[in-house]
Design goal:
The complex is a heterodimer of chains A (260) and B (261).
Chain A (H helix, E strand, L loop, with lengths): L10 H5 L4 H19 L7 H13 L2 H33 L1 H16 L5 H9 L3 H26 L2 H9 L4 H38 L5 H10 L3 H29 L7
Chain B lengths: L1 E10 L8 E11 L4 E5 L6 H9 L6 E6 L2 E2 L7 E4 L11 H5 L1 H5 L4 H14 L15 H14 L4 E5 L7 H17 L3 E5 L3 H7 L2 E5 L6 E6 L14 H19 L8
Parallel strand pairs in B: 3-8, 3-9, 6-7, 7-8
Antiparallel strand pairs in B: 1-2, 1-4, 4-5, 9-10
The chains are: A mainly alpha (260), B alpha/beta (261).
Chain lengths: 260, 261
């Protein structure tokens, strides 16, 4: 789809959605030069950060902690999806469920989830459960809210049609509301992943003794700037990979909404 | 046989709107295999009546009885064709046509075979894997009609089915429906606001009053089937259409005092 004629010249390159592949190397080069030029302990050049990642990988420390973080993410996020979607669908379909739960959803949506860390910490200590619950809480609400909007947005005519053809309430839920709400459900699942990843890192740093965030805390405490920057790169990479995985799933599942 | 016996329906007040008395004492008998058109001024409760026969809405008072059994909900003997098509946007033409059969738990191969036959019969060949949005309005309603026919209902309920398509397509769809009515034995209740369409298609025209709706007059069309080729010149058809038009215009000019809840 083309909205306006393309301009000629360098402006055209920056309009291209793939311009990131051009601007990213520029940023890296600037970083490298700045790091070497100002010889400042807290700004190591890009190459030093990459070397640090290399060393941490070689010692096995990094892979182990990535696995630890991702395990917590997987458990917390998967529970959030499994609870959030049905909950949102029920809230969208049944007024009573919605009236009962809406206040909690509103509170959870408005509150920074970080507030729950001390509560969870006092309940479950530094265990893996604290971190998993924190990830779960961070992701579940946005998933439920989107599923609810999705169900509410389904054409009432489709529901009436299904009923006219003898659909049971269960069939209305599974054959009409679930597929009809799927685009928004998947949007919620994607947003939930973003929040889950953030909670995973925060949880690592504040709670857990293992994981990428814990590693970040360790090297930060030693003033090892190269390792800290290297870890940042790894975390960004992991976060992007998680989001992209969900996004490609989303595209595959909601193909029918695309333009012809 | 469908018997509508002294049916009343009031829709409760909602969002600041006053309660609406939609139907007040509707009496109507529709014979088996009869084709009946229901006409009346807009808002007269035509759609409410057809939704009641479908079992989607229940009367406050009175009853709708089909072959001796009172209607308490939707049933396999009836299928509905909707004005806004109500196709599932995420399902292909084939899946949409087979949807009613799927709800009834028919095996996949079996229902796809039925859908396949209907795709041929309805002139949808080559569109079986298309999604509804890729089809014109007329094509979409062919899918809607095919979906209704797929469950092989004794009664076909059509709620202004051709009102959302252009005039040319409407004419073709009308001819197709006439052919269908001649070939198969089905009771058809057809709600429309188009007098020409009502007379062209039906054995009998039911004229309803403005809200609160009730049946004002039952008019036999008497044009025979198959319909004569020169239907537009047929004096009997012209006379009937002129009569219906005078009646409807009279209703719109002198609306009755609005009922207060």
């Amino acid at each position: 789809m083309r909205l306006r004629p393309q301009r000629a010249g360098p402006g055209r390159l920056l309009q291209d959605p793939r311009a990131g592949w051009f601007s990213l190397p520029v940023g890296i080069v600037v970083w490298e030069i700045a790091g070497r030029a100002c010889d400042f302990a807290f700004l190591p050049p890009f190459s030093a950060a990459v070397t640090a990642v290399w060393h941490m990988t070689g010692s096995g420390e990094l892979p182990l902690n990535i696995v630890a973080s991702l395990t917590a993410l997987l458990i917390g996020y998967a529970s959030a999806v499994c609870v959030g979607i049905p909950l949102g669908i029920l809230m969208g379909r049944y007024r009573r469920v919605d009236v009962f739960l809406d206040v909690y959803v509103t509170i959870l949506l408005a509150t920074p989830k970080l507030l729950f860390v001390p509560v969870l910490f006092s309940l479950f200590g530094t265990s893996r459960l604290t971190q998993v619950l924190f990830i779960y809480l961070s992701a579940v609400v946005i998933i439920a809210v989107n599923a609810r909007s999705g169900v509410r947005g389904v054409d009432a005519g489709s529901v009436e049609m299904a009923r006219a053809f003898g659909a049971t309430e269960r069939q209305v839920l599974t054959r009409i509301l679930l597929p009809g709400a799927l685009p928004l459900i998947m949007a919620g699942v994607r947003m939930g992943m973003g929040r889950g990843v953030r909670a995973m890192i925060m949880g690592d740093m504040l709670i857990a003794v293992v994981g990428m965030g814990a590693l970040l805390r360790k090297y930060g405490g030693r003033f090892d700037a190269a390792s800290v920057f290297g870890l940042l790169l790894v975390i960004v990479g992991v976060a992007l990979a998680c989001t992209w995985t969900i996004r490609s799933m989303e595209r595959r599942m909601t193909r029918w909404t695309e333009e012809t | 046989m469908i018997t509508v016996r002294d049916v009343h329906k009031t829709f409760p007040a909602r969002n600041g709107n006053a309660a609406t008395l939609a139907l007040q004492g509707v009496n109507l008998t529709i014979g088996t295999d009869e084709f009946v058109s229901v006409v009346g001024p807009s808002g007269c409760g035509k759609t409410t009546l057809i939704r009641m026969i479908a079992g989607l809405v229940l009367p406050d008072a009175g009853a709708i009885v089909i072959d001796g059994l009172p209607v308490s909900g939707p049933g396999p003997d009836r299928a509905v064709v909707f004005q806004q098509f109500a196709l599932l946007p995420w399902a292909t033409v084939t899946e949409n046509i087979a949807f009613g059969l799927e709800l009834r738990g028919m095996a996949r191969a079996e229902r796809l075979a039925i859908a396949h036959d209907l795709i041929y019969a309805m002139g949808l060949r080559g569109f079986d894997r298309h999604y509804p949005r890729q089809l014109s309005g007329g094509m979409q309603q062919r899918v809607g009609l095919a979906r209704a026919l797929a469950v092989n209902p004794a009664i076909l309920l059509m709620d202004e089915p051709f009102a959302s398509v252009d005039a040319q397509t409407r004419r073709t769809l009308q001819e197709d429906l006439l052919g269908l009515a001649e070939r198969t034995r089905k009771t058809i209740v057809f709600v429309t606001h188009d007098i020409d369409e009502a007379v062209r298609l039906a054995d009998r025209v039911v004229l309803m009053s403005p809200r609160p709706g009730h049946v004002v007059e039952l008019l036999p069309v008497g044009l025979g089937r198959p319909r004569p080729d020169d239907l537009d010149q047929d004096p009997q058809a012209i006379q009937l259409k002129a009569y219906l038009w005078r009646q409807l215009r009279g209703m719109q000019q002198s609306p009755p005092p609005k009922s207060r809840p």
